[in-house]
Design a protein that fits this description.
513 residues; alpha+beta; BirA Bifunctional Protein, domain 2; Rossmann fold
């Protein structure tokens, strides 16, 4: 099965089992907007809780806020979004489809990398144990040729983006002979800039004076509340402010399911430090955030750093944590050293001092900032991608199973009476009542026990509790593990303790503490 087929199967699975639905589907949908179903919203909330607790509860010097979506329009002038929050867009004249010029080039580079990896795998099969991958990459003509193309393309792209040279971007697309995926032609328009912010009117009278924006990021709500939090919380530098919230971007080229949407959710933390210490803290947060991702057990090889060659206007260092999605390695989280740009600009535009008096150095200064910014929806997609598995069992049967980390699983326990009579449902309800105050549980008495197990596998439930006739006599139940499918007999009185050790979030948090 190709990665593309796997991705299509995953998308279909998320809809079939109530994770994610196309928004406004009965009206033929709304492009790049999705709704979270009953299981998707549980998964999403579990991910947010994991992030929030790891940031706010485990760090005494980080607190959380919830700022408004609507903010004074001058905030977006100060942040640079009004003048510089643009994407370079290009159209194919034949298909009438619009693309981001930089994404076309990144996809071109990804295809070359894929060719290199295929050549490496051929070499590994050919030479077996004697295969030296490093030497192969350094000497194979095909690998060297494609690596040279990648380097040349990347250098020209970074130079064009840094210089905002739209003509150079178009020329690079032509030189790389990039074709439209729909029409297959190279009949491109010129590249032009497109601002991504949604605007609306404040009050009942339309006009320039009443124009405000839906926030394209949550970070600015943190910066404008810097002094409020610092003074009321008696915070000392270094300290952080965390926030989870909705953001909105008018993505013209929205694609890849929930990876790039027009309405999305962010988990951001701004960490305020002394000037001159920012790169030390940047390195610290790079390491900390990667450990947070790897603790989920999806596979360390699924993550990698990608240091920015083109730095944003506010940054002096930046890196992405990329995840290996079914469509390749893409950004999952960004860690940026934003210098004093944001607080300095808001100080300038508002006319209010946004400085911190440091009692240790006896001086006032505008703090520097390290940002960690992660998309909730992209993390949901990463977790879904990492969990989805199609397995052939020893008896020849097949099952689809979502191998979520137990702490993130939407449903923690399924309670299953073997039959709908003889007092089994009553005992099952008793067990359900004892567990549901701590964990999200699901009661199911329809169909054979095998079919019910398969349903729970498909939604990623870590544990199934089966109540049979013997349970009435010995007060024991059969506990089934999702991943191993092994079953064991356990006393009902020990059930809560066993479930807690399996699914409690605290055991996941201990890995990143």
């Amino acid at each position: 099965m190709t990665q593309e087929e796997l991705f299509k199967n995953l998308i279909a699975h998320t809809k079939e089992y109530g994770f994610i639905f196309p928004s406004s589907e009965i009206y033929d949908g709304l492009g790049a907007v999705y709704d979270y179903g009953q299981l998707g919203s549980e998964l999403k909330n579990n991910i947010k809780r994991y992030w929030w607790d790891s940031m706010v509860r485990l760090n005494e010097n980080i607190v959380g806020i919830d700022s408004a979506i609507f903010m004074h329009p001058k905030i977006w002038e100060a942040s640079g979004h009004v003048g510089a929050f643009n994407d370079p867009l290009i159209d194919n004249k034949d298909s009438k489809k619009r693309y981001r010029a930089d994404v076309l080039l990144e996809d071109y580079i990804a295809k070359l990398e894929e060719k290199i990896n295929k050549d490496v795998e051929k070499g590994r099969k050919k030479f077996g144990e004697a295969f030296d991958e490093e030497q192969f990459r350094a000497t194979n003509p095909n690998v060297l040729r494609n690596a040279k193309k990648i380097e040349a393309c990347r250098e020209r792209m970074v130079a064009a983006l840094n210089a905002n040279d739209l003509d150079a971007l178009k020329q690079l697309i032509l030189d790389c002979e990039i074709v439209c995926p729909i029409s297959g032609t190279k009949n491109w328009t010129d590249v032009r800039q497109f601002n991504l912010m949604f605007s609306t009117q404040l009050g009942s009278v339309s006009g320039e004076s009443g124009t405000i924006y839906l926030r394209p990021e949550t970070a600015q709500g943190i910066f404008v509340n810097f002094l409020n939090v610092q003074k009321t919380g008696r915070m000392k530098v270094p300290f952080g402010i965390a926030q989870i919230g909705k953001a909105f971007r008018n993505e013209i080229v929205a694609r890849q399911f929930i990876f790039r949407m027009r309405e999305f959710e962010q988990m951001e933390m701004q960490f305020f430090v002394r000037p001159g210490e920012e790169l030390k803290w940047f390195a610290k947060w790079k390491e900390t955030r990667l450990a947070w991702h790897k603790a989920l057990g999806i596979g360390d090889e699924k993550y990698r750093y990608h240091d920015h060659e083109k730095l944003a206007h506010y940054a002096n260092a930046a890196t992405d944590i990329e995840f290996d999605f079914p469509f390749g390695f893409k950004e999952l989280e960004g860690i940026h050293s934003r210098t004093d740009f944001d607080l300095g600009r808001h100080q300038e535009f508002s006319g209010k001092k946004l400085q911190y008096f440091d009692p240790e150095t006896n001086e006032s200064y505008v703090p520097y900032v390290i940002e960690t910014s992660i998309g909730v929806d992209r993390t949901v997609l990463a977790v879904l991608s990492g969990a989805y598995a199609q397995e052939t069992l020893e008896n020849g049967e097949e099952r689809v199973v979502m191998k979520f980390h137990p702490a993130l699983a939407p449903v923690k326990v399924a309670v299953l009476p073997l039959v709908k009579k003889d007092g089994l449902p009553e005992l099952a309800r008793e067990i359900m009542s004892s567990l549901k105050y701590e964990y999200n549980c699901q009661y199911d008495e329809k169909d054979s026990i095998g079919k019910r197990y398969r349903r729970q596998d498909a939604i990623g439930t870590p544990l199934c509790v089966t109540i049979d006739h013997e349970s009435l006599n010995d007060r024991c139940v059969t506990l089934r593990d999702r991943d191993t499918m092994q079953q064991e007999r356990v006393p009902i009185e020990k059930l809560a303790e066993i479930v807690d050790k399996k699914v409690n979030l605290k055991y996941l948090l201990e890995k990143v503490r």
